[in-house]
């Protein structure tokens, strides 16, 4: 008797220790999930968290496509990632479909004996489901998806302890997805507002129809080949959209003049770079964009404006917008001159590479051009 109670005591404390560890893990995973606002990254982290917390072989997040009334596997980790990623299930189909439709969690430790289990996924992925735990992901009581973990490691069964932890994780996933969605909506609204502003400027200048859009597309193509990081790409995109925003402060008779500008007029139009920066400086969130707008007419040999920056003094986003902007100006008709052919414009970029333009940026532009991206 004595021996047994001692044994029981050890087992109980091990159990409690294990529970505490998993609660700590849950809290850590929740923090990781909520430390990004990137929707795709939240989905990826949700998969990782499901796999890790449930000690499972594979974790998946299935999101509901309201229109098609389908569930789709957004991301899945493990060896079968490529296959599982493309799968869809109808609402009500399979364990995940049942959970999505009923909004209730489910553990199935013998899928072969459960009529709700859908063999199609296993057959198409050559994966054998031995046990599955599946919980709804709810945003304000509305089921938006399903979080599942498949095959508990060491052949163990999923139990009620797993379930309560998994439900808590699903709540964290829902919050992270909601935050990311709201942020994405804000970002989209912001880009659209910036595009509308740029469009308002273009409407005043009849010779530059579509200029902003093209400069933005060329800039992003260059950025891809320079392998910029996502935050730099974001800055570049906004800077390209808003690069000529300062033209709002230039009088119509200069901006709309069909003939070439005289010296004085040219000096006036040059002010648009600085004015653009002054306009944007009021917005704290756009601080990183300002250099791209202010310096898009600088040249690396120091003969540009407004500050005559040289070489590396010129910020990367400004170097990129400068090439994109000049190429578009060269390949667009003006009332006082015909557009250059693309080949001639490329020749000009090459000729001025290392003098007016950064040679790496020109290289990236040409690469994008040769691949038909420009
Ligand atoms: Fe400009």
Notes on the structure:
The chain is α+β, with helices and mostly antiparallel strands and 374 residues long. The chain contains 14 helices and six strands. It has a six-stranded antiparallel beta sheet, sandwiched between helices. The longest helix is centred in the middle third of the chain and has 45 residues. The N terminus is likely disordered. Bound molecules: fe (ii) ion (FE2). The site of fe (ii) ion (FE2) has 5 residues, from loops.
Describe the structure using short key phrases.
elongated; alpha+beta; 14 helices; binds fe (ii) ion; disordered N terminus; 374 residues; 6 strands; six-stranded antiparallel β-sheet
Strand order in the sheet with the most strands: 3-2-1-6-5-4
Helix content: 40-55%
What characteristic shape results from the CA principal axes? elongated
Count every helix, treating DSSP H or I runs of 4 or more residues as helices: 14
Q: Ligands bound here?
A: fe (ii) ion
Order of helices and strands: HHEEHEHEHEEHHHHHHHHH
Our estimate of the beta-strand percent is: 5-15%
Distance between the termini: 82 Å
Average pLDDT: 89
Structural class: alpha+beta
Q: What low-confidence regions span 5 or more consecutive residues with pLDDT below 50?
A: 1-10
- Cα-based radius of gyration, to the nearest Å: 29 Å
Kindly state the number of beta strands: 6
Biggest sheet overview: 6 strands, antiparallel
């Amino acid at each position: 008797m004595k021996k047994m109670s001692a044994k029981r005591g050890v087992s109980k404390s091990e159990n409690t220790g294990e529970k505490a560890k998993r609660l700590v893990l849950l809290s850590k995973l929740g923090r990781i999930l909520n430390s990004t606002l990137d929707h795709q990254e939240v989905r990826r982290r949700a998969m990782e968290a499901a796999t890790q917390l449930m000690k499972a072989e594979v974790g998946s997040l299935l999101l509901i496509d309201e229109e098609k009334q389908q569930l789709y596997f957004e991301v899945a980790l493990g060896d079968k990632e490529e296959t599982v990623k493309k799968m869809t299930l109808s609402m009500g189909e399979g364990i995940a479909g049942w959970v999505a439709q009923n909004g209730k969690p489910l553990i199935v430790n013998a899928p072969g004996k459960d009529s709700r289990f859908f063999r199609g996924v296993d057959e198409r992925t050559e994966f054998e489901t031995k046990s599955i735990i599946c919980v709804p992901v709810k945003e304000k009581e509305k089921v938006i998806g399903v979080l599942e973990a498949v095959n508990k490691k060491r052949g163990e069964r999923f139990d009620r302890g797993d379930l309560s932890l998994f439900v808590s994780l699903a709540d964290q996933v829902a919050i992270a997805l909601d935050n990311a969605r709201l942020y994405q909506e804000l970002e989209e609204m912001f880009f659209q507002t910036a595009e509308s502003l740029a469009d308002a400027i273009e409407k005043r200048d009849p010779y530059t129809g579509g200029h902003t859009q093209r400069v933005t597309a060329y800039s992003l193509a260059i950025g891809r080949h320079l392998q910029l990081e996502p935050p730099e790409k974001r800055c570049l995109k906004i800077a390209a959209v808003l690069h000529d925003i300062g033209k709002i402060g230039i009088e119509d008779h200069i901006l709309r003049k069909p003939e070439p500008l005289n010296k004085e007029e040219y000096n006036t139009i040059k002010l648009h770079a600085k004015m653009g920066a002054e306009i944007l400086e009021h917005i704290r969130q756009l601080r990183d964009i300002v250099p791209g707008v202010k310096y898009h007419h600088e040249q690396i040999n120091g003969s540009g404006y407004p500050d005559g920056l040289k070489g590396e003094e010129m910020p990367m986003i400004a170097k990129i917008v400068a090439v994109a902007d000049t190429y578009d100006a060269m390949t667009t008709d003006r009332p006082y001159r015909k557009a250059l052919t693309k080949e001639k414009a490329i020749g000009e970029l090459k000729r001025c590479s290392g003098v007016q333009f950064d040679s790496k940026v020109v290289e990236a532009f040409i690469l994008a051009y040769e691949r038909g991206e420009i």
